[in-house]
Amino acid sequence: MAEKKKNLSSGAEKAEKLTRKGNASAKTEKNTQEKHKKTVKSSVEQSKSAKKNDKKSAKTVKSQKHDKVNKAKKKREISAKKALKLKQREEKRIARAKLAAEKKQARLERKLAHKEKKLERIAALKEKRAERREKRKERRDMIKNESKQARRKRIESERKAKLAEKKAKRQAYLAEKKAKREHALKVRAEKRAERSEKRRTPGFGGWLAAVISLGVTTLALGTVVTFGWLTMDNMQADMASGYTESLYELNSVIDNLDADLSRAKASSSASDRVRVLSDIAIESETAETILERFPLDMQMTEQMSSFINKMGDSAKQMLYTVANGGELTASQKKSLQYMYETNAKIKEELNTLVSTCDGKDLMQAMRGKSSAIGDGFSVIQNNTFETPKGIQDGPFSDSVKKTNPKALKGQKEITAQAAEKLAREYFKDYKVSEAKCTGEATGEALTLYNVSLTTPDGEMFVQLSKLGGKVVAFDSYKDCSDKNFSVDRCVAIAEDFLSSLKLDGLKAVWTSENGTTCNLNFAPVQNGVILYPDLIKVKVCEERGIVTGMEGLSYVLNHGERSLAKPSISEDQAKSGINGNMEIKSSRTALIPFDGEEVLCYEFFGSLDNNEYYVYVDAATGEEIEVLTIVGTAQGKALM
After folding, report:
1. What is the rounded CA–CA span in Å between residue 322 and residue 334?
2. Distance (Å, rounded) from C-alpha 339 to C-alpha 287?
3. Over the stretch 155-200, which tens digit does the pLDDT of each residue have?
4. Distances (CA, A) of 610 to 395, 406, 582
5. Which residues contact 391 (CB under 8 A, 6 or more apart)?
6. DSSP helix, strand, coil percent of the chain (3-state; round to 5)
7. For residues 151, 157, 162 and 167, what is the CA-based torsion angle, rounded to 10 degrees?
8. Beta-sheet pairing, 624-630 with 517-526
9. pLDDT below 50 — which residues of the chain?
10. Measuring CA to CA, which residue among 315, 316, 287 is closest to residue 301?
């Protein structure tokens, strides 16, 4: 190559150089142009960017101004809201202050009014007291100058006037009540008829004839059932209306009994007493007849019916005494007082019933559902209706004198475990498998352990005294359905049972049978005197020949050695003081509870007009103090 280069001419070299120079200059020029273009382009771009920046800065300035305006506007709005809130708060504060002032003013006014009323009441009371004092003074002056006969007439006339006024008010009230009830029943019947009329649908046209003929049987059956239901509903409504009338009638009869019993208590004329006692006997029968109409369970009216029946019997006995020229005894007068008080309780409950119950309640009672009339009779039933001076479970069987337990005097307290052990021993013949003390029962003068015994015949419940562990009561729950033992055999079984409990010296004084159960009363005997305050009651199952129940609370509370005085009069003298028409069957001396005391008496058992009586004559004074008639079960009898 060097050789070739060397062989080139100088002209060629120059040309080549020029060519190279030209190419180099061309390149240089091209590069310069390109640089110029880039510079121009860059300046253009810079100017564009500057313009953009100018626009942005203008926008920024504009937005800043707008923000300032908005902030100022918001500040103005916030200040306006604050001012409104402050204004509202101020208005509320003023309203509260105004309300508080009004309340305060109202309180002050109420206080003032109350004070004024109080002063008025005090003034009225003072005026009434002055009037009462004046009336009392006038009455005292009148009584001073009034004869006994005039006083009796005045009292009788005043009483009759009060009774007449009360009776008139009551009759007016009952008449109004009855009218309202009849109106309500009439309206109800009209509404029922209207509903029945609306239910009827008119007949359909010919194109339904086939459907109607196919449904004739069903329609006929439905008509019969509907008619039967409506008829039954009407019948029940009529029955309820009848029961309502019976309730009003019973209430009226009880009101009359109240007035008559009050008259019988106050009357001293034999002829007037005969009339009053006759009315009581008749009204008692009427009340009993009305009571039998009510659609209530017999158990709900049993006590009330029994009381009314025995009140009528007592009135008849008193009527017989007065009609034969006799005077009512202290016992009969006490019985009269008892009848008056008990009848007053019945009257009060019936008045409440009449004012609250309606046909709906009676319909509920007829259907055996809970009702106001059922609840009312339950209240009456829960009251204690004792037999008016009569006996059913034996003389003085319900007399429990609450004293210190004499029979337990000097005894030590036992534990619950000891009570369980003693119960097993007492009832070992009953094959006790388990004895469990379930708690204590505390009375006014006695604390008892309750012990449950498990036997093959079922559960037994026993109560033992905490002092001494004596059996006070027990009961079992297995029924007796057959009669395999006589009454005499039951007496012997009961005596053996009492001996096993270490209760000796007792005599059976009364027996009665209730189905297949023999009920016996035992009393201690001291020097030939029966101690009625110390009774023990025993129940014997005539099927199995075992004692199934016992109650000895009276014995535990009262039994002890008595200091008995000798009778001041003979038996014949005592007998001469009682009704000469009575057939005396037996007699003996007895200690009886009377007016909270124990009185030594001659006890006479006899009959008069197919009724049996116990008559007790005070052995010290010869006064007849108690006459008891045997009522209730026909199997009851005295063991003399």
Report:
1. 16
2. 14
3. 777 777 777 777 777 677 777 777 777 777 777 777 766 665 554 4
4. 19, 41, 10
5. 397, 614, 628, 629, 630, 631
6. 60, 15, 20
7. 150
8. unpaired
9. 1-2, 4-6, 199-235, 384, 386-391, 633-635, 640
10. 287
Radius of gyration of the chain (CA): 54
Residue 211 pLDDT:
39
Reduced to 3 states (helix: H, G, I; strand: E, B; else coil), residue 591 is strand
Distance CA 501, CA 491 (A): 16
Asked if 313 contacts 320 with a C-beta cutoff of 8 angstroms, the reply is no
Instruction: List pLDDT tens digits, range 226-253.
Output: 334 334 444 455 555 555 677 778 778 8
Dihedral pair phi/psi, residue 465, rounded to 5°: -70, 140
- Token pair for 412: 């030590």
Q: Are 558 and 406 in contact (CB under 8 A)?
A: yes
Q: Is 368 left (phi over 0), alpha (psi -120 to 50) or beta?
A: left
| Residue 462 contacts residue 424 (beta carbons within 8 Å) | no
Residue from 595, 559, 593, 601 nearest 577 by CA:
601
The answer to whether the predicted template modeling score (pTM) of the entire model surpasses 0.85 is: no
- Say how far apart CA 490 and CA 545 lie, in whole Å: 7
Phi, psi of 619 (to 5 degrees): -75, -10
Task: Report phi then psi at 402, rounded to 5.
Answer: -80, 100
